[in-house]
Design the sequence.
């Protein structure tokens, strides 16, 4: 990047210097032409207002006192006098542009270059009172001759300017890139550092993505460690029971008890694997979720009826209240959402406890709430309750078969539906989870 910027700055400087030198030369030559023409005009007027012409008519071979070539042309274009040539041998000058201008407008001028392009002849004409035209002229260097003669100086000046520009380009490149390099080296403190204002949104986006990547990497690492840890317990139980039965150390009622332990651990293992796979699917899903219009109350009713047997096993009453409310959502995800909330409310409830599922609506929202009379969640744990594998009471979670992933799945589904989730809980008084869907 530095080299590219440096090369571009040097290239721009080179072009700018060359163009500047050429423009300066052109401007100088223009001033030079104007000065030559002014001098010729002054000289012509001096000659026309003095007795020089009266004297030169009597000279056969010009006048040495004339500093420029002087010519007198008659109205018919015939050369009457020339200080540098024999008038009798000269062509008719009536078609010369400066002569025509003088006869027509009183004065005229022109510049003609020589064949070699090294010299230019400047002409100025003035119509005299007697009707003749006085022409004065002189030779001067052409612009190409001036450029050629000044080329050594121009080359030296060009090299000196280029060296200066290279040094400045190198300095400017370092100055331009330094804040960017500093930003890259320490993107966490861009607000305090002197960074280009135009780059702040870009830098903030990069920092946010960087933090998100680190966070995801950390989360995945923690998730992998937690999955490995959670899988070890049921696998160890299955392996231990199987080994006891294999070695003949169990008989009668012990075999039945060990088989029940194997079935229970296998069920827990299967639940854990299913939840892990489902959560991974939700994380990896990049396709657009296809929503459909569903009746949230009817779905909650089906889930409550399906969970009644489990509620009776846990000695918990499960009820539903509300009315028909329609939302746009993914049917499978909403089923998982209601199931996980209800299952969690029953798992962490008390004997003879209650779980109430409510579905209500107003003009702009549909609200699903699941409220229980369970053990509640201490305040210090409430902010982390939706994290993966996070448990308030690990021993109770394992005894109820919880994987610690149910509420993490709930949070993900809520985010997909752009809904809002609110948890209100008090220790030993119960928990209420409210999810608000916009309509």
Sequence:
């Amino acid at each position: 990047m530095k080299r590219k910027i440096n090369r571009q700055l040097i290239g721009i400087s080179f072009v700018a210097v060359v163009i500047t030198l050429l423009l300066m030369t052109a401007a100088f030559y223009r001033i030079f032409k104007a000065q030559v023409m002014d001098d010729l005009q002054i000289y012509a007027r001096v000659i026309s207002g003095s007795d020089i012409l009266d004297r030169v008519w009597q000279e056969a071979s010009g006048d040495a006192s004339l500093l420029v070539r002087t010519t007198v042309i008659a109205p018919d274009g015939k050369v009457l006098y020339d200080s540098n040539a024999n008038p009798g041998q000269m062509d008719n000058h009536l078609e010369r542009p400066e002569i025509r201008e003088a006869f027509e407008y009183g004065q005229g001028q022109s510049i003609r270059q020589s064949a070699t392009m090294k010299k230019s002849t400047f002409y100025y004409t003035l119509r005299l009172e007697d009707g003749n035209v006085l022409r004065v002229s002189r030779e001067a260097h052409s612009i190409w001759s001036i450029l050629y003669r000044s080329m050594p100086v121009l080359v030296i000046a060009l090299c000196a300017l280029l060296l200066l520009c290279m040094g400045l380009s190198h300095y400017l490149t370092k100055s331009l890139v330094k804040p960017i390099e500093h930003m890259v080296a320490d993107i966490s403190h861009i607000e305090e550092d002197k960074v280009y204002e135009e780059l702040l949104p870009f830098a903030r986006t990069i920092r946010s993505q960087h933090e998100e990547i680190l966070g995801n990497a950390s989360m995945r690492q923690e998730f992998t460690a937690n999955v490995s840890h959670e899988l070890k317990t049921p696998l160890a139980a299955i392996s231990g029971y199987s080994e006891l039965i294999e070695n003949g150390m169990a008989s009668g009622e012990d075999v039945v008890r060990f088989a029940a332990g194997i079935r229970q651990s296998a069920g827990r293992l299967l639940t854990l694997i299913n939840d892990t796979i489902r959560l991974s699917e939700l994380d990896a899903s990049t396709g657009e979720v296809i929503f459909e219009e569903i009746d949230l109350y009817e779905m909650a009713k089906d889930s409550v009826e399906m969970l009644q047997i489990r509620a009776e096993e846990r000695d918990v009453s499960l009820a539903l209240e509300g009315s028909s409310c329609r939302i746009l959502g993914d049917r499978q995800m909403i089923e998982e959402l209601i199931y996980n909330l209800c299952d969690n409310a029953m798992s962490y409830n008390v004997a003879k406890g209650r779980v109430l599922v409510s579905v209500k609506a107003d003009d702009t929202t549909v609200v699903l709430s699941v409220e229980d009379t369970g053990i509640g969640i201490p305040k210090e744990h409430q902010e982390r309750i939706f994290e993966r594998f996070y448990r308030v009471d690990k021993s109770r979670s394992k005894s109820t078969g919880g994987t610690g992933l149910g509420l993490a799945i709930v949070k993900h589904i809520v985010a997909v539906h752009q809904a809002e989730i609110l948890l209100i809980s008090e220790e030993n008084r119960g928990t209420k989870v409210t999810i608000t869907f916009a309509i």
